[in-house]
Task: inverse folding
């Protein structure tokens, strides 16, 4: 299929189970294939359209699977990118968002701290250096938020931007109209 615009086939699409439960976020190319193979139906679409020589269809924003898929509760993978996403790309000590971030172990590794959701936070380089190998209380640097493992729903909610406003009812961010 030919596209109008630059890279719209890479746009995010929310995939819902048959029960309207959020399953994953995928790209538009994969969502279009699911719709064309009748494995999913379009629930909400973007303003753009995609074209082939014989077909024009709206670019899907939310699709619903035709059959119910049992999802194993896998949780969110602990990665640097996901820590930054959980922390809104904000230093958890000073709150800055204007500088590159690093990962900080709240309870330092050399003192037995592990690589866990509850022990890793985003930190700017100056705060990370200032804290050093101390606990936040010892460095007199309280955390802005206690680190936690995000749920799947809060993880999906991080994808919502102005273009994805139509996702909000499906991610429990506002009532369904």
Result:
């Amino acid at each position: 299929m030919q596209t109008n615009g630059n890279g719209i086939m890479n746009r995010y699409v929310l995939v819902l189970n048959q029960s309207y439960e959020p399953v994953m976020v995928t790209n538009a190319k994969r969502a279009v294939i699911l719709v064309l193979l009748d494995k999913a139906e379009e629930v909400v679409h973007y303003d753009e359209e995609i074209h082939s020589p014989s077909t024009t269809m709206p670019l899907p924003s939310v699709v619903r699977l035709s059959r119910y898929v049992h999802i194993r509760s896998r949780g969110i993978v602990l990665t640097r990118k996901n820590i930054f996403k959980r922390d809104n790309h904000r230093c958890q000590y000073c709150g800055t968002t204007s500088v590159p971030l690093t990962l900080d172990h709240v309870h330092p590794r050399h003192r037995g701290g592990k690589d866990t959701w509850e022990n890793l936070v985003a930190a700017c380089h100056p705060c990370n250096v200032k804290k050093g190998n101390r606990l936040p209380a010892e460095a007199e640097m309280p955390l802005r938020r206690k680190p936690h493992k995000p749920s799947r729903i809060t993880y999906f909610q991080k994808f919502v931007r102005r273009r994805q406003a139509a996702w909000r009812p499906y991610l429990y961010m506002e009532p369904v109209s």
